[in-house]
Amino acid sequence: MDNNTFMLIFCLFLVLFVVLAWIMLRNAKLYFSRFKYFSAFVCGIVGITCLALPILIILPLIAAPNRPYHKPHCTYNLYQIGKGLAMYSMDHNDQYPQDLQTLAIEMKLEPKLFVCPSSKHVAGSLSNLNEWTDYVYIQGLSATNNAHIPLAYELPINHNGEGVNVLYNDGTVRWLNLRDYLRDFQGQITNTNARKP
Question: 28, 44, 63: which is the final residue of a domain?
Fold first, then answer.
C-alpha cells in the first residue's frame, strides 16, 4: 500500500469515526440527559477518541518499517560506490570493474555499503559479495560513457516496491518511483550479482 492510498483510507476512517461519535453523543443526550452519568459517558467517548487517534497515526509507522525513510541511507551507499567506481576507473584506463566484488576488494570499501538498510539483510564477506549484495551493478560500462547512463541500482523490493535509488555515470544518485523505474529499466539486462527476491 503506497502513502497516497493509506492517507485516503485514514481520512475516510477519521471522517466516519467523527460522524459516528457525533451521532452517538446526540442520541446519548436524548437518552441519558436525565441521568447523572451522562458527563461520564461523554468523557469516555472523548477519552477513547484521544487514545484512538495517536494509535491510528503511529500504528502504520510501526507496522511498515520499510517505508522509504531509508532512502537517504541508500543514496549515501550508492554515492560511495560511485566514488569507488570513479577512483577505480582512474587507475584502469577509464574502465570500471567487472563486478562489485572486484571494486570492493580493490578499493577496500566497507561491506555495509553494499546492503540496503530497508532489506534487513546483513553484510557478508567481501570474498562472496556478489552473492549477498542488495545492489544491481551494470557491467561493461566505462567512465567515458554518457553521464546519464545508470551504473547501479537497488532492487525494488528494498522499499516495498515503491521505487529505487539509481547511481548514474556522473556520480549522482536519484530516486525513481516504481513507474519510472519500470519504464527506464524494462528489458535492462543485468548481471547476476544481486540477491534475487
Answer: 63
H or E segment and range at residue 7: helix 3-32
pTM score, two decimals? Answer: 0.60
Are both 15 and 98 inside the same structural domain? no
The residue type found at 176 is L
pLDDT tens track, the chain, 197 positions: 455 666 667 667 767 777 766 666 666 555 555 555 566 666 667 767 776 777 667 666 555 544 444 567 788 899 999 999 999 999 999 999 999 999 999 999 999 999 888 777 788 888 888 888 989 899 889 999 998 899 998 887 877 778 888 999 999 999 888 888 888 775 553 433 333 33
Q: How far apart are CA 41 and CA 85, in angstroms?
A: 67
Last residue of a domain, one of 25, 45, 63: 63
